[in-house]
Design brief:
The chain is of the alpha/beta class and 248 residues long. The protein has seven helices and six strands; from the N terminus they run H-E-E-E-H-H-H-E-E-E-H-H-H. The protein has one domain.
Length: 248
């Protein structure tokens, strides 16, 4: 069943917040809903659902000595050690980047997002520089009908990888020849890592949560499902529970 118009914005925000949480749990520093501004007209050139940066030696160790596991589907191998920059789009149902990124100015917009990370020297973005060449390479990849792997490029001398990553529902595989990370996999990983047992204890209770906004609604839904002993908790279940608790 298609979501109602009233649910479209909350649903989109829920999906983006879920992806941000997934990236955060895998050691990425994230900016959700990153807006690229301009000085005239509409005031916005494009937006990225999530920008995420992961440093090569990231590790999250708990007080008891447990090192929190990362997702091998997402995290790059440790050799060679690379700083990973992710420009992420969360889509239903198409596996594609937004029209601005795909359009004639796409390479420049990718460059603007990449420069936001601050991991490449400015002179690499000049004509003939490796930074600019990477942006052109990624822009061409975004417009290719086939992505055997997630579009990626490397600036080896700076030990930086840039990946243009789409997150979409698993059903998108049926009509796409492009590689992406499915949202059901994202939910499975987040649910395992956020289970209030074992390595992840309960927070201070529903009356006060350190989480904020849409992420709080997601965490509350996952905790409630765990407390209810839900044997399975699927992607539609999460969306339903978050939308039911959405402030109206």
């Amino acid at each position: 069943m298609s979501p109602s118009n009233a649910d479209l914005v909350p649903r989109a925000e829920t999906l983006e917040a879920l992806v941000e949480l997934y990236l955060r749990l895998n050691g990425y520093f994230c900016i959700r809903n990153y807006l690229q501004h301009r000085t005239a007209g509409f005031g916005l050139e494009t937006e990225s659902d999530v920008l995420a940066l992961r440093m090569p030696h990231q590790q999250e160790e708990l007080q008891n000595g447990r090192v929190q596991p990362n997702d091998d589907w997402l995290v790059l191998p440790t050799t060679p050690a690379m700083t990973d920059c992710v420009i992420a789009e969360v889509k239903e149902p198409a596996v594609e980047f937004n029209k601005s990124m795909r359009g004639s100015e796409g390479a420049r917009l990718i460059a603007q997002a990449l420069r936001m990370f601050g991991v490449l020297p400015d002179d690499l973005f000049k004509k003939g520089g490796r930074g600019w060449a990477v942006c052109e390479e990624l822009h061409r990849a975004l417009n290719d009908p086939d992505w055997p792997a997630i579009p990626a490029a490397m600036v080896a001398e700076e030990h930086v990888t840039i990946r243009m990553m789409v997150f979409a529902p698993r059903e998108a595989h049926l009509g796409s020849r492009r590689a992406f990370i499915d949202l059901e996999h994202v939910l499975d990983f987040v649910r395992r890592r956020m289970a209030p047992a074992g390595a992840s204890s309960e927070y201070r209770g529903p009356e006060f949560s350190p989480w904020r906004g849409t992420t709080r609604l997601i965490v509350t839904a996952l905790d409630s499902a765990h407390a209810a002993g839900a044997a399975t908790y699927q992607f539609p279940d999460l969306i339903r529970d978050v939308l039911e608790s959405w402030p109206r």
